[in-house]
Task: inverse folding
């Protein structure tokens, strides 16, 4: 029997799609029965009260959650988001209803045992409601009370060797694709780099001092399975310097229908025989490929790493051998100025575990110094870049301008030189000048 | 700068503004200390550790305040 009548929420269950209301009702029942015999540390009816307060919000057309809070675990400025309701008498189960962000395992590699430990902790010390996963990648625990925060932190850190994620004006939990663990396209070990930078920048992750949030994401190749280019202030996207490796025999096998293109994906439709001209050559965005007399050729200098040909014929084409990553900066979701994609800052950098990824850290730290000094409060890196100009970022980071930084030939005829860029500076010998120019 | 001296500077400056606001951005603190953000961060972290300052977070933005000040503490049963 439900604690609160929820006619408006019940309506949300009537559509053809899965309903979070049904899930919450199921969880409320599960807590009431408590068949697992958990010693529940927060009110048993927390989920009932959550449904109740949500119904009230629908009825009133306004939220009953307050904004933010001062809760956290000792020494951490992120990972816990204080949530308090403004109707604690009506809904005591959600008087405190804090969110906790738990760092996800690298590339979200779980064991079922790990998942059970997580849900056991959360059934006992929290509401049992999770969000797997938040946009940044964290495991999100939704709803617990203030006294449980330290207890949960102790259990996840001591028993599960896990940490809180990032929230607030912090480095957010870095996220990576599955990388070389499972994927032949990965140009570098995304999980190792992600872990290394997470450990190196613990202070930035847990103690807020940035103007706003900052996200790292690691894609092993330009397919971008974690969409780093669109979702992170600083994206590390695998690439290669040399040529795409071609296996001519395998190309012929694709053309001859021996191998299914795209690894057999789309095989359920009748697309006809594989046509290399139509499906590969004509779709190359830079037109840098040709297939003549049974021979595939690629002008690698023109290749923009779109990955289409490699994805379509993975047995015939492979990424180059000289691999590393490109660094792009400034992507963000739309709050101010609309969404932005990352801009290429470093076309190629080696990803070298032997020197502790120094070349990459040498890019990160000056960039942070610049943004921390110049960025306005609540301004993402991409917005600072837009406001002050890409050139300001290059100057601050000491990165030399290269053609890859330019999107298109300039349409503005004016070039403003700085004194240090001009041989001899602004001073001149006036007598020498007057020899040729009258006053 | 000694830690105690830095803490005194920050607390004094924040208390002066308490009538109009109780939560401050990190940038405000580094300006009070007259330091670059990286240098100021070490002092500010220690102030939080010592209980001179506390964090406030909306989830997306973080701010700093003197413990027990502002509407938040009373409104949220933390005082």
Result:
């Amino acid at each position: 029997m439900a604690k609160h009548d929820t006619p408006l929420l019940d309506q949300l269950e009537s559509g053809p799609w899965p309903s979070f209301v049904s899930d919450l009702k199921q969880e409320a029942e599960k807590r009431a029965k408590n068949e697992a015999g958990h010693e529940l540390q927060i009110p048993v009816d927390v989920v009932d009260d959550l449904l109740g307060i949500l119904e009230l919000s629908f009825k009133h057309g306004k939220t009953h959650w307050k904004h933010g809070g001062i809760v956290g675990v000792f020494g951490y400025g992120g990972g816990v988001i204080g949530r308090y309701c403004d109707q604690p008498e009506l809904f005591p189960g959600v008087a405190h209803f804090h969110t906790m962000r738990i760092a996800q395992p690298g590339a979200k590699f779980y064991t079922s045992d790990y998942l059970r430990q997580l849900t056991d902790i959360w059934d006992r010390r929290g509401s049992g409601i999770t969000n797997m996963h938040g946009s940044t990648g964290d495991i999100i625990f939704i709803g617990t009370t203030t006294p449980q925060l330290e207890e949960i932190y102790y259990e996840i850190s001591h028993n599960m060797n896990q940490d809180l994620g990032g929230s607030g004006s912090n480095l957010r939990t870095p996220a990576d694709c599955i990388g070389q663990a499972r994927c032949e396209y990965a140009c570098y070990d995304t999980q190792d780099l992600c872990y290394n930078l997470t450990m190196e920048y613990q202070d930035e992750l847990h103690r807020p001092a940035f103007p706003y949030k900052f996200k790292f994401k690691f894609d092993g190749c330009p397919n971008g399975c974690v969409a780093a280019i669109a979702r992170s202030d600083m994206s590390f996207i695998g690439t290669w310097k040399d040529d795409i490796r071609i296996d001519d025999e395998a190309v012929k096998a694709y053309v001859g229908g021996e191998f299914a293109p795209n690894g057999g994906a789309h095989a359920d439709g009748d697309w006809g025989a594989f046509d290399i001209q139509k499906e590969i050559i004509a779709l190359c965005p830079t037109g840098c490929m040709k297939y003549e007399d049974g021979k595939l050729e690629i002008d690698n200098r023109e290749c923009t790493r779109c990955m289409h040909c490699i994805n379509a014929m993975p047995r015939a084409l492979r990424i180059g051998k000289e691999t590393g990553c490109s660094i792009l900066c400034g992507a963000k979701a739309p709050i101010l100025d609309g969404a932005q994609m990352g801009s290429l800052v470093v076309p190629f950098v080696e990803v070298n575990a032997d020197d502790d990824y120094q070349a990459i850290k040498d890019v990160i730290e000056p960039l942070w110094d610049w943004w921390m000094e110049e960025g306005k409060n609540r301004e993402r890196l991409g917005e600072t870049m837009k406001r002050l100009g890409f050139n300001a970022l290059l100057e601050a980071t000491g990165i030399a301008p290269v053609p890859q930084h330019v999107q298109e030939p300039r349409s503005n005829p004016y070039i403003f030189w700085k004194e240090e860029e001009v041989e001899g500076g602004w001073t001149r010998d006036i007598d020498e000048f007057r020899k040729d120019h009258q006053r | 700068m000694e830690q105690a001296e830095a803490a005194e500077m920050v607390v004094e400056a924040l208390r002066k503004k308490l009538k109009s606001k109780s939560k401050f951005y990190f940038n405000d603190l580094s300006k009070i200390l007259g330091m670059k953000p990286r240098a100021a961060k070490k002092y500010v972290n220690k102030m939080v550790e010592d209980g001179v300052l506390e964090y406030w977070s909306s989830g997306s933005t973080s701010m700093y305040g003197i413990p027990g000040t502002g509407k938040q503490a009373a409104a949220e049963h933390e005082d």
About this structure: The radius of gyration of chain B is 12 Å.
